[in-house]
Design brief:
The protein is of the alpha/beta class. 38% of the residues lie in helices and 20% in strands. It has 7 helices and 7 strands; from the N terminus they run E-H-E-H-H-E-H-E-E-E-H-H-E-H. The radius of gyration is 17 Å and the shape is globular.
Length: 193
């Protein structure tokens, strides 16, 4: 299965990079054909350009600087996202990747009545998400009602690839974890992914 692993953390020695390395090694043992897209290492420009936004409702989206990214997404069967949750949202660079690469004519089509989004990522079979949060689980679950999970599962996957399986693992209170808790989470990744 063609697998795109998208990593969004600026530090090479971060917990997210460690979890990414462990996840990639695990998926390779299961036969996944891995392509790594490290948004910070690639210096991905997250800002939707004027030309791109201008072309959202035209016949063709301006993909002039995104050809490789768009092809990569459209060929992907398994998408793995690994990132920290900051302020109960995505890092800006990952949000920008969604804004720019999950584009009309590629990830979805506008309906004729301009009301609904029609899915186009039929190739996407599964979306696996790993995120770290500084907060405890109860804050994300009970107070904020898991905003990152809802956006990914309902808004992004739900409209562009609704038949795609969705799994998300969140590592809470990640700024004060023992090695044992990190190792336990890695075992959870291996069990579920």
């Amino acid at each position: 299965m063609k697998c795109l692993v998208v990593i969004a953390h600026p530090l090479e020695d971060s917990l997210c990079k460690h979890l990414a390395n462990e996840t990639i090694a695990h998926l390779e043992t299961k036969g996944y054909e891995i392509t790594v897209k490290d948004l910070y290492t690639e210096s991905f420009a997250p800002t939707l350009t004027h030309a791109e936004r201008q072309s959202y409702f035209t016949e063709e989206f301006d993909s002039s600087v995104l050809e490789q990214d768009l092809s990569q997404l459209k060929e992907t069967q398994s998408l793995v996202l690994i990132f920290p949750t900051w302020w109960f949202g995505f890092p800006a660079i990952l949000k920008g990747w969604f804004d720019r690469v999950w584009a009309p004519g590629h990830a979805y089509d506008h309906a004729d009545d301009n009301k609904a989004i029609l899915p186009k990522l039929d190739n996407l079979v599964e979306m696996k998400v790993i995120t770290t949060l500084g907060s405890p689980k109860w804050v994300d679950l009970l107070i904020l009602r898991q905003p990152v999970r809802r956006v990914l599962k309902t808004a992004i996957r739900g409209t562009c690839a609704p038949k795609c399986r969705f799994q998300m693992l969140s590592l809470y209170a990640s700024e004060s974890l023992s090695k044992e808790k990190v190792d336990r989470f890695i075992r959870k990744i291996r069990t579920h992914f």
